[in-house]
Amino acid sequence: MSGSIADLFSGDALQQLTSNKQIGEQSYVLRGYALPWVERLLPELRRVLAQSPFRKMVTPGGFTMSAALSSCGQLGWSTDRTGYRYTPLDPDSQQPWPALPDVLRQLAVTAAAEAGFGHFEPDACLINRYVPGAKMSLHQDKNERSYASPVVSVSLGLPAVFLFGGHQRNDNTQKISLFHGDVVVWGGVDRLRFHGVLPIKEGVHPQMGAQRINLTFRKAG
Ligand SMILES: O=C(O)CCC(=O)C(=O)O
User: Fold this and answer.
1) DSSP letter for each residue of 31-71
2) How do the domains of the chain map onto residue ranges?
3) Is there an atom of ligand 1 within 6 Å of 197 CB?
4) pTM of the predicted structure, to 2 decimals
5) Which of 130, 136, 143, 192 would be a feasible disulfide site paired with 212, CB 3.0-4.6 Å?
């Protein structure tokens, strides 16, 4: 048997194996960065979700988001008809959000450092669950008290096309394929760039099933 790794993998799979990508002055896709963490991360995620299960939320405009959401950390993000906000309590249970598991915190901190953001101290982890067809419209992350810290975004499960735009809603967007284990970090001059996710395509991921789970870590308070 002969041949290189490039003979075994092609197209997107080869790209995931080989190439980190700079997508902005202070923004990076770290290909497969979370893969070595997944085995330790999933049981913690299950514990978090047993305490604060996924739920559908409504935007101030009255639209039900197609992604289901939960959170862990000192602060959790939610939306309803009265606005977007971070709160220390899960609005469904009126109990504190589950603590941020150490393995998740470490993953976020080391990924941020890899992208040039040392001393990242996330206090909020938003957990988005996308089933096929679910999407995230273009938006800016602006509910945090300061924009000094980056956003660290971990993709698990089904692939997605991540839209990374500019500072105006109408700016052109880069379309970036994200796979299980990829991490995107954006901050600094790029912190307020518009971003979103195209509708997830039908499929079944061998480890995660028919879903994509995205974890976004932020310093919100
Ligand atoms: O699911 C993603 O990759 C992005 C999630 C996102 O845009 C957000 O939580 O603000």
Assistant:
1) TTTTGGGHHHHHHHHHHHHHHS--B--B-TTSPBPSSEEEE
2) 20-218
3) yes
4) 0.93
5) 130
| Average pLDDT taken over every residue of the chain | 94
Q: How confident is the model at residue 19 (pLDDT cuts 50, 70, 90)?
A: confident
Nearest CA to ligand 1 atom 8: 216
Nearest CA to ligand 1 atom 9: 216
Q: Which of 202, 156, 147 is nearest to 178 (CA)?
A: 156
4-8, 31-35, 168-172: which has the minimum mean pLDDT?
A: 4-8
CA atoms within 13 A on the CB side of 56: 9
Q: In terms of Cα–Cα distance, which of 124, 155, 128 is closest to 139?
A: 128
- Give distance in angstroms: CA of 136 to centre of ligand 1: 7
CATH superfamily of 20-218: Alpha-ketoglutarate-dependent dioxygenase AlkB-like (2.60.120.590)
- Residues 67, 59: contact at Cβ < 8 Å? no
Sign of the alpha-carbon dihedral angle for 199, 201, 205, 209: positive
Structure tokens at 148: 């000094």
Tokens 């639209």 correspond to 63
Distance 67 CA to ligand 1 centre (A): 10
Percent of the chain with pLDDT over 70: 92
Query: Exposed (0-12), middle (13-18) or buried (19+): which is 77, by Cβ within 10 Å?
Result: buried
The rounded Å distance from CA 214 to ligand 1 centre is 7
